[in-house]
Amino acid sequence: QVQLVESGGGLVQPGGSLRLSCAASGSIVSFNAMGWYRQAPGKQRELVARITSGGSTNYVDSVKGRFTISRDTAKNTVYLQMNSLKPEDTAVYFCKAEKNKFTHYWGQGTQVTVSS
């Protein structure tokens, strides 16, 4: 069973930055893709950013130019660098690993709060 552990969340002022980390218990090169999702209170979980095994990335429009997803295969870790944070970025952020079309793993989530 793959375990994903997120860290790096917290409280930050608008305009600030945070870097989230997702550490996997196994080799991330075995996954087709990894992604960051978020869920705000009363809203559906949404994809924020995704990186494939080939290194291709995609982002939800609302974070383009502000967030960057990256990975370190030696550390089995995926990162989400978040800059110019806005109050509407407040949510619980989850990491997901896609082993194949039918097998996905989720982390427990980390809270990000953007507030003055």
Observed structural traits:
4-stranded antiparallel sheet, 116 residues, 0% helix, mainly beta
Mean pLDDT: 96
Rounded to an integer, what's the Rg over CA atoms?
13 Å
Distance between the termini: 40 Å
Residue stretches low in confidence (pLDDT < 50, at least 5 long) are none
H/E topology pattern? EEEEEEEEEEE
Secondary structure class reads: mainly beta
**How many helices?**
0
Helix content: under 10%
Strand content: over 45%
Q: What coarse outline follows from CA principal-axis ratios?
A: globular
Largest sheet: 7 strands, mixed
The count of DSSP E runs of length 2 or more, i.e. the number of strands, is 11
Describe this structure in words.
With 116 residues, the protein is mainly beta. It is 0% helix and 51% strand. The protein is built from no helices and 11 strands. Strands 2, 4, 5, 6, 9, 10 and 11 form a 7-stranded mixed β-sheet that branches. The model has no long low-confidence stretch (mean pLDDT 96).
